[in-house]
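Example 4.3 (complexes with small molecules)
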Amino acid sequence: MNKAKRKPVIAGNWKMNKTATEAVELIDALIPAVKDADCTVVICTPFTTLATAVEKCKGTNICVGAENVHFEKSGAYTGEISADMLVDLGVKYVITGHSERRQYFAETDETVNKRTKAALEAGLTAIVCVGESLAQREQGVTEELVRLQTKIALQNVTAEEMSRVIIAYEPVWAIGTGRTATSEQAEEVCAAIRKVLGELYGEEIAEATVVQYGGSMNAANAEELLSKPNVDGGLIGGASLKADAFGAIVAAASK
Ligand code: 13P
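Answer. The structure with 1,3-dihydroxyacetonephosphate bound is encoded below.
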């Protein structure tokens, strides 16, 4: 393991929260809270807030990401947003395959792959989410499932594009439940993800790829989770909506 090779990435996922007007206040509070970060700081916001977020974060150390992207370049896809539209706004990151999209919006491993490819081809960095449900953990298939999700999400992703891929391990049972994975559970699955990356792309790329943990990460548990050799950052939901909590997680990742 060589964690020193990887700069931690702390990314907020605002989900369907904050109007553009409300976002101004939160970003004003976030800027001083994360200004001394020694890690990459990203906020992924709703589409309607992206333009405001990009404008507000100019000249700061906060990067802006979207929460989803469509896989076609343009066309008759009412209500969808393309990767080029995000790039044009100044967005740098995008989440693909979040479990809430898989659960509520019929996202499949194949569409996650298509979205990830489209994002990478447009020059975005993709934060690709994988993770098991509680039933799957209890069935003892976590590792197989996460391996499968990772392999399908990365179909046709080139070695060059892997420098713009982050994998986020988010156990579904830990999201928004206050039930965090233990640092051992997070480490075990993040290490398994790195192993599959090694099988697909070789040791060097596997060692260089950021693998995050997400699921009820907060100011109190971040340091312990991030102390694990294969946990290179966090994808933060609820706690990313509070500047002090998000700032504390960023500080933990900067140690
Ligand atoms: P919570 O931090 O609210 O559990 O959400 C995690 C998540 O889904 C981030 O993408």
